[in-house]
Amino acid sequence: MCGTVADGPRQDSMKIESAVVRSLAKTAFSTPSWRRDFPILIESGSIYLDNAATTQKPQAVIDAEAEFYVRCNANVHRGVHKLSLRATEAYEGARAKAQRFINAARSEEVVFVRGATEAINLVAQSYARPLLKSGDEIIISAMEHHSNIVPWQLVCEQTGAVLKIVPIDDAGEFDFDAYDRLFSDRTRLVAVTHLSNALGSVVPVKRVVDSAHARSVPVLIDGAQAISHLRVDVRLLDCDFYAFSGHKVFGPTGIGVLYGKAALLEAMPPYQVGGDMIRSVTFEKTEYNKIPHKFEAGTPNIAGAVGLGAALDYVSSIGIEAIVAHERKLLTYATQALAGVPGVRIIGTAREKASILSFTLDDVHPHDVGTILDHYGVAIRTGHHCAMPVMQRYGIDGTARASFALYNTWEEVASLVAGIHKIREMFYS
Amino acid sequence: MRYLRWLYQGVILDHCKRPRNRHVLADANRKAEGHGALCGDGVIVYLKIENEVIRDATFEGRGCAIAIASSSLMTEALKNKTITEAAHFLESFHHVVMDSVAASCPELGELEALAGVREFPARVECAMLPWQTLNIALKDDFPPLISMEPIAAKVDNNQ
């Protein structure tokens, strides 16, 4: 399945670059040194621009997981033997790394989950469901991923609560006036994305939190996209919950984090029940363990957590500011280059954007764009991006989406643009 | 690269840009709707069947070049085929796009252009979408040529 890529685009791309690409290329920046940390980019030869779906893994993460199985593997929080203690130390060490990465006050505020989806479901079922009465309201935005819509729809069905939607404007900006008007004395929770996966809009979440807190309403932030592209400081944001997935920040799949303020987590009933989350069990009564273990029933994804810890260390070693600066240049270059191609319409033109460039090409279905680009060795995502309401907002079925990460280069962006020119030749001739 | 050219060749691009039979068939007596699980694209296939023979076939819908070309070519090919012939035709098409070994099937005519899709596993669903919808329409238990008006009315309501 990892076959060689068909005839590469490199030679072709040089010939068909538009003037705007050429002029931008003069201001080209060098390939980041950290690109060579990602073996798959070298092995596959693929131009990977599908980072919003999942990111590639640096050698340090691959090694950390392997090392765990070679040196430490045992169950956690149970045994008195050496390996179990080592495994527990590695697992809790990863929790401490996650705590530092998002600047949480305490490591118990970091709950390991499978990913952002599970984190949001956990909050919907353990925080919101016991609290909600019929007629209560939850506010989300019009640019949420399905995983920050459907858990709230389910809890609304279960409780009779109502979902309120903050609109976005044509550029994909969060409408703060409408947001402020949506609050009522029945508003119980706000759940908003930090970075839109379909549009690339950065939501000013600090302002979202401040408005909600002024009305004593707690806020969950879906950080699935933001975590590898923006600085996340949960104490600065003062958000009540923050959810992210490990695999979108260069870590393994199947591991993620729910950050929650300790007082809230302590008051919440468990989400799943079983081993490791109890203090004592008799057939008459069970006492739950303290946070975060109360929310981590069963044997967790220990190696995954260790891999995530290594990934967060990796990002910190480069520094989020350096990543932001690099990706901003890539996104600006890509946006200007694509905007200059006739027939291209960029979907999502918010003032503050990161990583994501969604677009349509007149009279060409995004799937055809994706298939043809793939044959030029360029991997992008096409379709509705699990954000169908966003597509409906723009009156389209889907988009082609290029999403950049810290290891992408301007040459890769040039190949994307060259590929779009090829598609035009094919379809418009 | 040759596979890409094979897939996006003249016949397919022509039928994608100028699809044939893309309209509601007012006197249809069979109709089925199909949706692509991956893309969410949808197609409606209309058939007018008389005495076990497909007198007319049309489609409506939005989709990628492969799905639209496949729908267009399919509706062209179906006209004046018996239901049994159409079912057999569907099977031949299915083989041509699914089988890993390239099997030539001259009876498919222009539809063979879609054989290239077998090199693109993620896109086979697109090519098969109208055919799976046809399959439902053929199995439809509506007795032909009875209660035409309600069916036509139902078609209109769904626009």
Structure write-up:
The complex is a heterodimer of chains A (429) and B (159). Chain A has 429 residues and is of the alpha/beta class. Chain A folds into two domains: 10-49 and 319-428, Aspartate Aminotransferase, domain 1 (Alpha-Beta Complex), CATH 3.90.1150; 61-317, Type I PLP-dependent aspartate aminotransferase-like (Major domain) (Aspartate Aminotransferase, domain 2, 3-Layer(aba) Sandwich), CATH 3.40.640.10. Helix content of chain A is 42%, strand content 15%. Chain A is built from 16 helices and 15 strands. In chain A, a hairpin with a 4-residue loop joins strand 9 (278-281) and strand 10. Residues 1-16 of chain A have low confidence and may be disordered. Chain B has helices spanning 2-7, 10-17, 65-78, 83-98, 124-139, 148-157; strands at 30-35, 42-50, 53-62. The longest helix of chain B is centred in the middle third of the chain and has 16 residues, at 83-98. Chain B has a single domain, classed as Sufe protein. Chain: A (Alpha-Beta Complex). Chain B has a three-stranded antiparallel sheet, covered by helices on one side. The chains are: A alpha/beta (429), B alpha+beta (159). Chain A binds chain B through residues 6-7, 363-368, 371-372, 375, 383-384, 388, 397-398, 426-427, and chain B through 1, 3-4, 7-8, 13, 17, 38-41, 62-66, 120, 122-123, 126.
Q: What gap, in angstroms, lies between the N and C termini of chain B? A: 40 Å
What percent strand of chain A? 5-15%
- Please report the first level of CATH classification, the CATH class of chain B: Alpha Beta
Return Rg of chain A in Å. 23 Å
Count every helix of chain B, treating DSSP H or I runs of 4 or more residues as helices: 6
Can you give me a brief rundown of this structure?
The complex is a heterodimer of chains A (429) and B (159). Chain A is of the alpha/beta class and 429 residues long.
